[in-house]
Design a protein that fits this description.
Blueprint: H1 10-26, H2 34-41, H3 45-51, H4 55-76, H5 85-102, H6 106-113, H7 119-136
Length: about 140
């Protein structure tokens, strides 16, 4: 990925990210054209390729963004440190509602991504599961 993406204003980054989530969640990976993502983000296809060299790179970036966002919000809302079940559930729900507000199509993207055959995603998914197990199954 080109680091110039991160020099964009946050609103433009958000538009590109949400456009990617929307298009990939509505279509299969194979049937999600970069031109449609660019149109949804309000930028040219050439500019999208300037920020992400190819569709796979964008897809893997969005996958990483899902994990990063989920962990950040769950941490911010204090979900991991709770010992009380209902308190943990309430905090988790609040965190998830905020994620949905900022990234409306991220949940559907994540579900569909589970079935996409990209080697790196399988490795990342395994690391993410290990992380969550370490938090929720830790012995106190």
């Amino acid at each position: 990925m080109n680091q110039r993406f991160f020099s964009l204003p946050v609103e433009k980054q958000q538009a590109i990210i949400n456009a990617g989530y929307r298009v990939f969640s509505q279509n299969s990976y194979k049937n999600s054209p970069m031109s449609e993502i660019a149109d949804a983000a309000g930028i040219s296809k050439a500019l999208l390729f300037h920020y992400f060299h190819n569709k796979k790179e964008l897809y893997l970036f969005l996958w990483d963004k899902c994990a990063e966002t989920t962990i950040a919000y769950m941490t911010e809302y204090g979900c991991y440190g709770q010992t009380e079940l209902f308190e943990s559930m309430e905090r988790g729900m609040r965190a998830k509602m905020e994620i949905i507000r900022r990234y409306p199509d991220m949940g559907t993207f994540t579900i569909k991504a589970f079935y996409v055959d990209i080697d790196q995603m399988e490795k990342d998914f395994t690391k993410l599961l290990t992380f969550w197990k370490s938090i929720y199954l830790r012995k106190e």
